[in-house]
Write a structure and sequence with these properties.
Blueprint: H1 2-20, H2 27-41, E1 50-55, E2 62-66, E3 73-77, H3 79-82, H4 89-95, E4 101-106, H5 108-122, H6 130-137, E5 140-147, E6 150-156, H7 163-210, H8 218-231, E7 238-245, E8 250-258, E9 265-267, E10 273-274, E11 279-286, H9 288-291, H10 297-307, E12 311-317, H11 319-327, E13 330-332, H12 334-344, E14 346-355, E15 358-363, H13 368-415, H14 423-436, E16 443-450, E17 455-462, E18 469-472, H15 479-490, E19 493-497, E20 508-514, E21 517-523, H16 535-542, H17 545-582, H18 590-603, E22 611-617, E23 622-630, H19 632-635, E24 644-648, E25 651-659, H20 681-695
Antiparallel strand pairs: 1-2, 1-6, 2-3, 4-5, 5-6, 7-8, 7-15, 8-11, 9-13, 10-11, 12-14, 14-15, 16-17, 16-21, 17-18, 19-20, 20-21, 22-23, 23-25, 24-25
Amino acid sequence: QRTRDAEIERSLERVRTAIAAMQDSSGILGLVDTIRAELANLGAVADDRFGINTIDPTTQCIVVRTGIARGSHERIIPQAEEMSPESLFGEWRRRLSPGVHWHRRLTVDEEIHSRTIEARRLGNVLPSDWERHVRARGDTDVLDLYFEQGSLAVSRTTGPYTDDEIALLRRFTDVFALGYRRHLDLTEAEARTRQADIDLSVERVRATSMAMNDTDDLPSVVGALAREMHRLGVCSATVGINFVSEPGTEIDVWNVHRRHPWPGLEVREGVLIEVDEDFCCHHFRETPTALATEETTWQVVVDAWRSGEPQVTDGTWTRAGLESWARGWLDGSDEAFNAFAAASAGSIRLLNVPFAYGAIGYNQPQRDDHIEIVQSLAGALELGYLRYFDLQAAEQRARDAQLARARQHVRSVVTAMKTADDITDVVVVLRDELRYLGVPCDQVGVNIANEEAGTIEGSWSSALGDVGVTRGGAHGQTASAARLMEIWKAGETWNRARAEADPGALGWVVDVAFDFGTLAMNRGQTNDDAAEFSDDEIAMLHSFADEVSLGYRRFRDFETLEAQNRRLSLESALQRLRAEVASMAETDDIARVMGTVFSELRGVGVPAVSANIIVIDEPARFSRQYVLIPHYWYERGLVGTPAISDVVDGIDLFRGDRPLRDEDDWIDVVEPDLRELTWDAASFAVVRKQYRKQFGFDV
């Protein structure tokens, strides 16, 4: 007996040692294994007839931990099953009282009925020979020895337990009760540590949210949330942060991916938005068109947001679909893509956890604690999104203020116009203001439509550099002009690649309609990386339509006024010239008339530095040429002594005679003849020689 007592005490001491060695709450299963092994060595239990039943302090569900030679396992008894009339767990709970035991006989029929109900609930099928095996084994004696939180349970078919056996099992039960108390303490400490870890993650997301300086910082916030989810064990290849707009008809999607989702694969440079060295994200919007179909993934997101309850979607990833998806944004070898697709294909479970402004989606087996983690992080994300809204509103106010200032600047330039030519200042300022507003463009242009002619009658365009404006004439009956007319009449926008009209041309161009034609801007003529104009940039250009319309109205008014002024100036000049002719008293007075012609030409705006007036006496085959030059040429020593100085105010006259020659093609001119001449050095040398000989000065 002393030997038996010593053996029992050594067994109990090994159990106590195992309790002291427990490092975390998961050690409870190892403790169950240790007690089973010690009781088996003492001959007190059979390998498959031992277990520990406890009540979970959080859920109040019964947890059954069964100890067998192959290792312990546990399962949770839902309260619905516990309360079932066929279940013995309801009676077990009612009898629970520390220090007592419940010893009963379970008949074969009771066991078969109970196990059949349990298998049906779990969706299991009992082996075909199982009932025969149970009947052959016979009735079972079951013993539960209670402690504060549960019981140590044993059973056998060899007969009832003796008082000595019950006393032995009670000693082990009391020792296990100490171990279970340590398990609860460790569980509580782990829960506190876990909660502290979650709180830390929440604070990190919140801190990142508060550190936002502008809306461009939102990727860092969604990246922080995905990073903390991974750190807390909610690991998903992609985390989708989906912001749903009221009334649920558009989703602002931020899919966060790991930069290296699989060995040998990495995110392609420039495809996604960089977050940090580990994460990047893909941003896009799903519009009402994509949300119209109830079966879409996005409809599930909206349903989760509207219901406030997590939504679970089961699906399947095929190898071909996964590989095609991955090749769209990852770089790597064919072997890496094949390995990734093979390992990831199969059934998936997508969870969408709602928060105030949308839902967070991830792919992982459903776990309540993971949902709680995501919900906690979503609370911090809500703060970030609120700040995003505030920053967005502030930036919009700033953009509106900048746009209002820019429009006022253009309007002030329009107001300051003194002549029709000042329209070029409006074009230059429009280009500069667009650039200042963050719309990079090479050139800005104004195209004027002629509805009667059905084409573009003229245009102004800023130079490709930073200086100057060029004015173009009518476009003619071209396809591009016809399209511009359609755009103008419909009040639409035409955003296109320049190569559409000019194959091989680089860049992009956009035209937006205004009252008198279209406003245009282009970019990419010198930059291959230039992108197509965005909707926001086009809207920015269109916002200047009223100012440009006002500018063109003033241009037309000035043109009309300037035409009237030119007619009046010309009539006055002619009156003065007639008076000069009428006052001629001798033949030499023709010189004064010639000077008056040149002076009045300059007065009415003909931009001539000098003028040659040739008088022809064709019958006599003789010509006299009068050259009129500003007097300052003589003062600066550029010419010799004139025939008459100051023939009229500030104009000197040179005179020369020569016979007519057959090659003088100007003799037969009866209409204005406008020509552009290009002289080479040799030809110009001849002209200089002739002028020196005929007039006595160099040119």
